Amino acid sequence: MYQWTVTKKEQNISLLQFLRSKIEDISQKKIKEWIHRNGCMINGRVERFASTRIRYGDMITLRPVVDQLVSILFEDEHLCIYNKPAGIPCEKLQFEGVELVHRLDRDTSGVFIIAKTLDAYKSLFLQFKNKTVEKEYQALVDQRVRQSQGVITSHLAHYKSYDGQKLYQSQKTGRFAETHWTLKERLNRASLIMCFPKTGRTHQIRVHLKEMGHPILGDYQYSRSFHCKHQPLRHMLHASKIQIHHPISQDLLQINAPMPEDFVNVINDLKVS
N- to C-terminal Cα distance for the chain? Predict the structure, then answer.
């Protein structure tokens, strides 16, 4: 981890300029990636904009972000199911010539399916379209959730862009979205909940939990402040399970992705803090 205090001579330059002057042996591209992936803080708050102007006396902290290895949960000649690490875009795992069947946000870890053939793609596409795929997510959210379970429904639509991504919120003109959830554990100013999305809208779980009053820890795109003092490097959302029918044999497949190390570490910290 790197840490500096901004001097009078260094004030009013961009965050990226400042960091480049401090660590010349690291490429500008790599530094921007670390900033984008929540590795930089100014005065204890995550800053995702490389163009932000720094001020005299600011405390700048930079934590290098290291990619985890991609592991395979299931594979045959028709499909491959990965345990996608956070920080890797789904497109990087895509096979040439076959469209992605579904997507996970870049910083969401967990079960991700790739079709290897056109026939497999068509079958899987229909399963997602017909909502016969069962999905389970684990989310670490801000504050202690009082209820034990619930159902969130709304209509989601794009309303602005932030840091190169479209952001969504509930609007009457949006597309219907439904998320079921159950409380798994209450922690120190946080909660671990299980989410079961019945639709697959972009950022659905993130928006629904934010609008419920319990944003996902580390989701700085949808919440700039949290009651919980823990500041993860990415949003704490993990696709833990998926159930599909094999695209060719039609056998029922239930695939589980173990909780990643960073997720486990945050839970442990919130148990003892």
Answer: 22
In angstroms, the CA 24 to CA 33 distance is: 15
Domain count, the chain: 2
Distance (Å, rounded) from C-alpha 213 to C-alpha 209?
Answer: 6
**Catalytic amino acids?**
105
Residues 109, 265: Cα–Cα separation, whole Å: 15
User: Three-state DSSP class for 35?
Assistant: helix
Reference 55, options 3, 19, 5; nearest CA is: 5
**What is the distance between the alpha carbons of residues 149 and 184, in angstroms, rounded to a whole number?**
9
What domain range is 113 assigned to?
71-272
Q: What is the pLDDT of residue 155?
A: 98
Give the up-direction half-sphere exposure of residue 78: CA atoms within 13 A in the CB hemisphere. Answer: 13
Query: Model's pTM, two decimal places?
Result: 0.81
Q: Are residues 21 and 131 in the same domain?
A: no
Cβ burial of 202 (10 Å; 0-12, 13-18, 19+) is: middle
With vertex at residue 181, the alpha carbon angle to CA 177 and CA 185, rounded to the nearest 5 degrees, is: 150
Residue 266: the pLDDT is: 96
pLDDT tens digits along 156-177: 999 998 767 899 999 999 999 9
- Cβ contacts of 164 within 8 Å, gap of 6 or more: none
Measure CA 16 to chain center.
24
SS3 223: coil
